Every structure is written in structure tokens, then in C-alpha cells.
Amino acid sequence: MLRLIRIFGILLFGVFLIMMCTSETVLHPDFTITDKMLNEYIKEFPHPDITEKILANPKEFLESIKAVIALPPEFLFLVDKQHSLGEAYEPEDLENLQHYSIKTTKKSLTLRSVILDDLTTMIDAAKKENIDLVIASAYRSYTYQAQVYGYWVKQLGEEQADRESAKPGHSQHQLGTTLDFYPIDDSFAQTDESEWLLMHASDYGFSLSYPEGYEDVTGYKYEPWHYRYVGKETTQMIDSYFMGIQQFFLEFYSGYADFFKTHLKEKT
Ligand SMILES: [Zn+2]
Predict the structure, then answer these.
(1) Peptide bond into 48 cis (omega under 30)
(2) Which fold has domain 73-230?
(3) N vs C: which end of the chain shows fewer Cβ within 10 Å?
(4) Both ends of the chain: CA-CA distance in Å?
(5) 98 neighbors 104 (Cβ within 8 angstroms)
(6) 184 CA distance to ligand 1 centroid (A)?
(7) DSSP 8-state class, residue 99
(8) Distance in Å, CA 257 to ligand 1 centroid
(9) Which residues of 224-242 are buried (b: 16+ CB within 10 A; e: fewer)?
(10) What residue segments make up the domains of the chain, in order of their start?
């Protein structure tokens, strides 16, 4: 009997220890976040399958988000039907693509220089597999977006125009990190280029913004030609925790980045 009580006591102590460890220990040496804090904080995110994935691998997730936090914040701005960059947003490091070994359909196309290394590396890698990536659209200023949107409203009416084009300030193209491959139409989905990008773009930090079947999430019908650079650290995170859907990640990050940043320990 005494032995039984002792065994029971040891078991109880063990359970207590496990509970202490899982709820109060910090999850990652570079953050002051405990399991309990993380649970409490992200439970409101409206995609339980995503929060479950994060909570199943919290240490790996924090390692990943630490790398994402270190990226230029504009790479991760949420720009969609609800969130505008504003009229004044214009990147300072736009470069004409003519100066690089990048095929384009127009001479005037520009993108941020900070992404051009990864872009040219991706295009060269594709070329080695006989995949010819041509860029048909890149940075679009606020003023240009206003002209394009005005044109579509005239042609299609406002409701349909909103599905085809973004209201000025609401286009990812204003970031200078977003591009469209040629041809910009539904036939692109059937090309080898599209297939190659679906397989490999994320290895170079490029992410498909408006995937097939997610119009209710992104606000846009499938755009197989439209890719946004978010950095390799981010594409890895999107694939591992966010079901490959950029919009889910950007919504999460815009809501929770401050929590992770505030609890990141200062480097000494
Ligand atoms: Zn586009």
C-alpha cells in the first residue's frame, strides 16, 4: 500500500513537472515567450489549422519568425482590397530592368534593386531548364494605378473592375517587389513557365499572391502570372505553417508581428 502511494506520488510530481515545463518555460532562447503566452495570444487567429501547426512546433516557428522579422518590413506589408499603401508610398531603389539580363515586354519596367539578385538567379535557374521567364509588368505608381482603375471602371463597371484591377493604393505592384510574367492572361496557367514557377519560385523568395480557389480569401480571381517577392525566409514560413497561402501569412503577420518583435530579446 505504502509502495503504491509512493508510486502515485512520483507520478503526480512528474505530471506537475511536465505541466510546469510546457506552460512556463520560454519556447526559444531568443524570445521571452512561453507556451502559455503564445497559446493565449494567437488563439484568436481565425484559421485553427494554422494555429495548430504553429503550436505543434513552437520553437521551430519562433526560429523562423526571427528570420522573417529581420527582413525589410515593406517585404511583408499587407496590401489588399482593405489595406492601402497610400498615395505617397514610392520605393527609393527602383531600377530599370533593362540594365539586367531580364527579358521584358516593355522598356520602362522597374523593380526594387534589393530583390534583383534573387530575381536574376531565379530567371537563370529557369533558363537552364529551358524555361523562358519574361516580365510583362512590374512597379506601378499610385498615379498609374489610378489611370488603370479608371479605365476598367469605364469598361466594366465598378464591381467587375474590382475583380480585375486594384483601387489606387491597393496594388501590390506599388511595392516595387511584385511582378507579372508574360502573358498576363489565363493561358499562362497552361505554360511550362507557370508550372516551373509553382514548383520553384518560393526557393528564390517569390510567392504566388492569388492562387486558384482562394478568391474569397485574397479578393482576386486566380492570377497565375502575379508573384510578389517576400524573401526566402518568408516563403519557407508560408509553406510550412500557412498552407502555402501568402494572404494567410500577411494577415497573421500584420496582426501579430508586434507581439513577436516586443518579445524578441535585444542582442547583447
Ligand atoms: Zn500583377
Answers:
(1) no
(2) Muramoyl-pentapeptide Carboxypeptidase; domain 2 (3.30.1380)
(3) C
(4) 55
(5) yes
(6) 8
(7) G
(8) 26
(9) bbbbbbbbbbbbbbbeebb
(10) 73-230
